[in-house]
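User: Can you predict the 3D structure for this chain?
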Amino acid sequence: METTTCPECGAPAEIRARSVWESTSGPVEHVRVECVARHWFLMSAASLATAHADAVAPVRPRRPAAHPLQPRPAR
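Assistant: Here is the predicted structure, written as structure tokens:
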């Protein structure tokens, strides 16, 4: 069993099948992914890798917003 994360919701998912399809630029590997929330996808393996990388990308802390009643500093 191969596991990954769901490209839509980030829940645990299983790669149920792999196949190679011919294309004009050469063969492309495709995977069928099903998650625990019952989403399923048929997508290229490269797209899954990109979706997985986006899901595990580190989150950068955001600057806190200024209080709405506080005046903005002069420039």
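The longest helix spans residues 45-55. Residues 2-45 form a domain with the SH3 type barrels. fold (CATH 2.30.30).
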